[in-house]
Amino acid sequence: MRVVFLGTGTSTGVPVIGCKCRVCNSNNPKNKRLRTSAFVEYNNKKILIDVTPDFRFQALSNNINYIDAVLITHSHADHVNGFDDLRQINFSMNWKVIPVFINRTSYWELQSRFEYVFSDSNQLGGGKPLVSVHVVEDFDEINLNGTKISTFFYYHGRLKVNGYRMGNFSYLTDVSFIPKKTLEMLEGVEVLVISALRFLPHATHLCFSEVVNLVRDIKFKKVYLTHIGHDADYDEIVEYLKGTNIEPAYDGLVLEL
Q1: Which residues contact 221 (CB under 8 A, 6 or more apart)?
Q2: Which H or E run includes 223?
Q3: Please, which pLDDT band fits residue 85 given cuts at 50, 70 and 90?
Q4: Using the 8-state DSSP alphabet, how is residue 34 labeled?
């Protein structure tokens, strides 16, 4: 398995437009964070997790021109607003339809936001993404021609969000509360990716100390933090997490699992 962190930033990205804080002005490339997304190669399948507003740049930077499936965590703008750029992937795949997996509530929002994708249109202009949508339930299993991916849910404030497990790897972003059954599904995971926004608590995101406390109860081999805001400098996060099995991810980080 190969995992590429396409983006590790919160909804604003880092640097934030108009912000002059020390993190936004930092020269450390690990403090430059596009919106959160990952590209996973698993059992010869190429899988995109979320389609951010930065997807065009992320795809070009990482030579992504083929996708076997898109896994959507939820329909907030920073996770789906690059959806239209999937049509260029269709083009590079000789117009092959891309399966998209998403929970029911997020699918309703996606249809509203990208109505032209899901309806007949007499004027396509540059075309539209060719996708087949598959609604996933709370604890579901995706089967990509024999490659199985487990799904589960957790909460981002009051919103249900989907996480995914592929073998011994699991990916969760925009987390504030994880139900007991989902924690049980994470047993046996060796590498966990989970969001942590900043040092201070937040109403709809875990902070760094909350993730530290969470992973004490489940014995992961390695934990990577994503969806990080501009309140946190990369080197300071590393220092804070010293002595744990947790480290902040950064854009372009590649895991060979």
Answers
A1: 190, 191, 245
A2: strand 222-226
A3: very high
A4: P
Contact 77, 47 (CB under 8 A): no
Q: What backbone torsions phi and psi does residue 159 show, to the nearest 5 degrees?
A: -85, 135
Distance (Å, whole) CA 123 – CA 81: 21
| CB 133, CB 69: distance < 8 Å | no
Residues in the chain, total:
257
Q: Which residue has the higher pLDDT, 122 or 159?
A: 159
Q: Kind of pairing, strands 98-103 and 69-71?
A: parallel
3-state SS assignment for residue 189? coil
Residue 119 has a pLDDT of 87
pLDDT digits (tens, 9 = 90+) for 34-69: 999 999 999 999 999 999 999 999 999 999 999 999
Tell me the two tokens of residue 256.
Answer: 């060979």
Is the CB of residue 52 less than 8 Å from the CB of residue 82? yes
Task: With H, G, I as helix, E, B as strand and everything else as coil, classify residue 245.
Answer: coil
- HSE at residue 51, side-chain half, CA atoms within 13 A, is 26
CB distance 131 to 100 below 8 Å: yes
For the chain, give the mean pLDDT.
96
For 70: left if phi > 0, alpha if psi spans -120 to 50, otherwise beta; the answer is beta
In our burial notation (b when 16+ CB lie closer than 10 A, e otherwise), range 127-142 reads ebbbbebeebeeebeb
How far is 106 from 108, CA to CA, in rounded Å? 5
